[in-house]
Amino acid sequence: MAVILGIDPGSQKTGFGIIECVHGRCTYVTSGVIRLPPGALPERLRVIADSVTQLVNDHCPSELAIEQVFMAKSAGSALKLGQARGAAIVPCVTSGMAVGEYSARQIKQSVVGTGAADKRQVQHMVMTLLGLPAAPQEDAADALAAALCHAHTRSSLVSLAGATAVRRRRLR
């Protein structure tokens, strides 16, 4: 069993989503958005770190899936996004969690089937894949999509490792 925390980092709001995966079947645990206060960036980073620490303490995830930094509107925006990612990653690594990092395109491809999917498509597929009664908020859906991408990638790697082990035994 794996409990996967997905995070969609941001310097104004950070989405989170937690899923539990058992034998390739993923179920929804919780999701939401950490709304950050206006003001200085260091204070907002503290809120991210404290909130993620609380999620880790409450739900004991074993793995983290987080979106990589992309060059957004400006270098300054990318730097702030990178700092928000760092604030979210540190509490997870401190608790011993494995970290998987994925591009937005990889996440969309894994969940929707195309790396060019829009936010509504991601919300719809997350809702469908997890059997949710309604679409989660955009940032929470993105975080759940990251967690699902990690679960799919993890499952594929385990399958490949098993197939390689079987082939090695046959060759001997």
UniProtKB/TrEMBL annotation:
SUPFAM superfamilies: Ribonuclease H-like (SSF53098)
Assembly and oligomerization: Homodimer which binds Holliday junction (HJ) DNA. The HJ becomes 2-fold symmetrical on binding to RuvC with unstacked arms; it has a different conformation from HJ DNA in complex with RuvA. In the full resolvosome a probable DNA-RuvA(4)-RuvB(12)-RuvC(2) complex forms which resolves the HJ.
Pfam families assigned: RuvC
GO cellular component terms given for this protein: cytoplasm; Holliday junction resolvase complex
Full protein name: Crossover junction endodeoxyribonuclease RuvC
HAMAP family registered for this protein in UniProt: RuvC
Cofactor note as given: Binds 2 Mg(2+) ion per subunit.
Cofactor dependency: Mg(2+)
Residues the record marks as active site: 8, 67, 139
Binding sites annotated in the UniProt record for Mg(2+) 1: 8, 139
Biological function: The RuvA-RuvB-RuvC complex processes Holliday junction (HJ) DNA during genetic recombination and DNA repair. Endonuclease that resolves HJ intermediates. Cleaves cruciform DNA by making single-stranded nicks across the HJ at symmetrical positions within the homologous arms, yielding a 5'-phosphate and a 3'-hydroxyl group; requires a central core of homology in the junction. The consensus cleavage sequence is 5'-(A/T)TT(C/G)-3'. Cleavage occurs on the 3'-side of the TT dinucleotide at the point of strand exchange.
Residue ranges crossing the lipid bilayer per the database entry: none
Reactions the enzyme catalyzes: Endonucleolytic cleavage at a junction such as a reciprocal single-stranded crossover between two homologous DNA duplexes (Holliday junction)
Family statement: Belongs to the RuvC family.
Domain of life per record: Bacteria
Gene for this chain: ruvC
The entry's keywords: Cytoplasm, DNA damage, DNA recombination, DNA repair, DNA-binding, Endonuclease, Hydrolase, Magnesium, Metal-binding, Nuclease
Keyword Cytoplasm: yes
Family annotation (CDD domains): RuvC (cd16962)
Gene Ontology MF: a single term: DNA binding
Chief location bin: cytoplasm
Compartment annotation: Cytoplasm
Entry's Gene Ontology BP terms: DNA recombination; DNA repair
Database matches in PROSITE patterns: RUVC
Binding site for Mg(2+) 2: 67
